[in-house]
Write a structure and sequence with these properties.
By secondary structure, the protein is of the alpha+beta class. Among the domains are: 300-593, Up-down Bundle (Butyryl-CoA Dehydrogenase, subunit A, domain 3), CATH 1.20.140; 614-683, no CATH class. Helix content is 50%, strand content 9%. The chain contains 20 helices and twelve strands. It has helices at residues 8-18, 35-53, 55-63, 77-87, 106-114, 120-139, 142-153, 285-321, 345-377, 381-417, 428-435, 445-456, 463-478, 487-509, 514-518, 520-547, 557-574, 577-586, 591-594, 655-672; strands spanning 66-68, 71-73, 157-159, 178-181, 187-197, 206-215, 225-231, 247-252, 263-268, 274-278, 614-615, 622-623. The protein is globular and about 80 Å long. The relative contact order is 0.07.
Length: 686
């Protein structure tokens, strides 16, 4: 049975027939590589993914991580996978050969890692390590590189990205973590970081955290932020590990998905001795961190693509096997044989929607990685500038558009399965749960949209954006005569994209910043659809040439027909949404800003179906939401988090007393509210 992770034929099509990546081997930087080596690498990636990474997906989800004595233990199956991952050299694909790595082209490394990224919970321990190592490679001192990089490249030591704080998520400039300077040039950090992915694990002997903090006395806001390296175990001069650093893993977050990934709350310097080393220059923390974040955003695109791919292929297989209903031709014949559901029109609509989006994601992300390669390997400055511009402008599209629409792909896969898709006996519900986080972390998608309109469109006075539109125009012109019913539609959409961008520019000059700001996300999605249509047209043009060959596409005839069908469906059924979005933006309506806060919903006294006492772990205190009049009356204050204890009513109880109190509350409420009382677990942590 073929794997249901990636369609390897489509992967090779994008690499070799669309992008012609073997041409990279003619450049000095990649002269040691060949298509044979690329194929061998991808074959090994497929074997490892099918044999080890995919089998760990469900097991890791069900076992999850646990925190014991301050240390995180990952699912048992991850340890064998990690051994093979290290041994296969997957951690050093992008590391230059002179630094002990393999120096593969980015686009080939992306293709290999697409095989693993459906299990993003497992892969996160390694991708974050690669990102942290890249930061040290670029900004670290020679001593830091010597101390940390060899073990990090081998993934014997791990790495993270510690930005977020409980009171400063996206608003990084408001962070409270402080760095206290020591006479020896090192620092001691104090603060709390939240939602730190892979913050601890028993997969690694040591973990190096790049941490954003503010040196005492430095100015507020992002301009005063520096970045520090905080090792789990500080490294002695002889390379041995010292005693554990002064930070604690306070908790593992209970999440919707990626249960095998330890997402942690980290307390730094409770004893004032959290050792840290400055990375780069003081007050350059945001600039340095953005290098890692931009790379991570492409990584999120890979995660989104991989999740969409595995969901689509599973739904396709199910649709071919599931028998239900008769064919359209015999729909009135009760004795007609049952047919696979792939024969039903609505199922086919969902499948081709998933197919066209998944193939478009792959084209977009591979093209963007290819641009990174062309930037690195460019032989002249004009070429470097061209491809770097494409890379800059497309990065937020890869992250935000792909992650949002990939979630829709996983949702649609569940719909193909019907009721079975909603059940844990089938894997698609986990695909959806694991996919959702991609639109949230590494900068929520609304932030990606603001980055696109506020920074990327204006780079080089708009030259990067206009160059991309020009590249789209060249592709459209190339296939205008071969695909006359598709190319004009894509050109019209490109023109619309340009018009809306010009409208934003004019609005900004006129001081009307609300129009672009309130429509940043719709614009990003509009641009994502236009970019996908351009790339799918490109693929259809290549496939059409194969079909027009004397052998009619040979053994791959059906594959090439599928490429043309994907492009046609997307351009005819999805791309028209661009016109609706543009019409809405051009209307100039900013009602979302004009509506008063209190007009969103009127707060009224309402019956409370039940009250749940919340007990903070380790603290014998409980917050009970209480009435403004009588305790347990019909109106209560809002339930808040476990740390906001005893604001409305002070009560101190032992755990056993809490259980009795809850029983009393429910009994009193049942006397007043006859409808069934809901499940208390819905309002707590389970």
């Amino acid at each position: 049975m073929p794997n249901l992770i990636i369609d390897p034929r489509d992967q090779r099509f994008v690499l070799y027939e669309m992008l012609n990546v073997e041409e990279l081997c003619k450049l000095p930087l990649y002269a040691d590589f060949s298509r044979d080596l690329f194929d061998m690498t991808l074959n090994e990636a497929e074997k490892f993914a099918a044999g080890f990474v995919f089998p760990c997906l469900v097991e890791g989800d069900r076992e999850g991580c646990r925190l014991e004595n301050g240390n995180v233990h990952v699912p048992k199956c991850y340890h064998r996978c990690a051994q093979i991952y290290r041994g296969g050299g997957w951690t050093t694909m992008n590391v230059p050969a002179e630094d002990g790595g393999q120096g593969f082209p980015r686009v080939v490394a992306v293709a290999a890692k697409e095989w693993f990224s459906h299990n993003s919970a497992f892969v996160s321990y390694f991708t974050l390590t690669e990102g942290a190592a890249n930061l040290i490679e670029t900004y670290g001192t020679e001593a830091q590189k010597k101390k940390y990089l060899p073990k990090m490249h081998e993934a014997v030591w791990g790495g993270t990205m510690a930005l977020t704080e409980p009171g400063a998520g996206t608003d990084v400039g408001s962070l409270k973590t402080k760095a206290i300077r020591r006479p020896d040039g090192t620092f001691r950090l104090q603060g709390t970081k939240s939602f730190i992915t892979a913050a601890d694990s028993d997969l690694m002997e040591n973990i190096i955290h790049p941490v954003l903090a503010r040196i005492e006395g430095d100015p507020p806001g992002t301009s005063g932020i520096s970045i520090f390296l905080v090792p789990k175990f500080p490294v002695n001069e002889d390379g041995t590990l010292g005693k554990r650093n002064d930070y604690t893993i306070a908790k593992i977050e209970e999440k919707m998905g990626i249960h095998g990934s330890a997402t942690c709350l980290v307390n730094l310097g409770d004893n004032g001795e959290c050792y840290a080393e400055l990375l780069g220059e003081e007050r350059q923390g945001m600039k340095i961190m953005f290098q890692m974040m931009n790379s991570a955003r492409i990584g999120i695109g890979i995660q989104a693509l991989s999740g969409a791919s595995i969901a689509y292929l599973h739904a396709l297989q199910y649709a071919k096997e599931r028998l239900q209903g008769s064919s359209l031709a015999e729909m009135k014949n009760p004795a007609a044989p049952r047919v696979p559901i792939i024969q039903h029109p609505d199922i086919r609509r969902m499948l081709i929607w998933m197919k066209s989006h998944t193939e478009g994601f792959r084209a977009l992300i591979y093209f963007t990685a290819f641009c990174a390669d062309r930037t690195l390997a460019a032989v002249d400055e004009a070429e470097r500038e061209k491809y770097n511009g494409f890379l800059e402008v497309l990065t937020p599209i890869c992250k935000a558009y792909c992650s949002d629409m990939a979630f829709r792909v996983t949702e649609t896969a569940i719909q193909v399965y019907g009721g079975y898709g909603y059940c844990s006996e089938y894997p698609v519900e986990q695909f959806l749960r694991d996919e959702k986080i991609a639109s949230i972390y590494e900068g929520a998608n609304g932030i990606q949209a603001l980055d696109l309109i506020g920074r990327k469109l204006g780079l080089k006075k708009g030259m990067y954006f206009m160059n991309l539109l020009g590249e789209m125009g060249q592709t459209i012109g190339k296939y205008q005569s071969a695909l006359p019913d598709l190319a004009p539609d894509v050109q019209a959409a490109v023109n619309t994209l340009a018009e809306v961008a010009m409208l934003f520019a004019a609005s900004g000059k006129a001081g009307n910043f609300l129009l672009p700001l309130t429509n940043a996300y719709p614009f990003l999605m509009l641009m994502g659809q236009v970019s996908m249509a351009w790339l799918l047209l490109w693929q259809a043009g290549v496939a059409n040439e194969k079909l027009a060959a004397p052998d009619g596409g040979g053994a791959d005839k059906a594959f090439y027909e599928g490429k043309v069908a994907s492009a046609r469906y997307f351009i005819k059924h999805v791309l028209p949404e661009v016109d609706a979005a543009a019409k809405a933006i051009k209307s100039g309506d900013v009602s979302m800003m004009k509506i008063p806060d209190e007009a969103f919903a009127r707060r009224e006294a309402r019956p409370v179906p039940f009250v749940l006492a919340q007990y903070a772990a380790g603290v014998s205190a409980v917050r009970i939401p209480v009435a403004r009049q009588e305790p347990f009356g019909p109106v209560v204050s809002d339930i808040v988090g476990q740390q906001d204890l005893v604001e409305a009513l002070e009560v101190r109880m032992e755990p056993g007393e809490i259980i009795q109190a809850e029983a009393d509350i429910f009994r009193r409420l049942e006397e007043v509210h006859r409808p069934p009382i809901g499940d208390a677990r819905l309002f707590g942590d389970g």
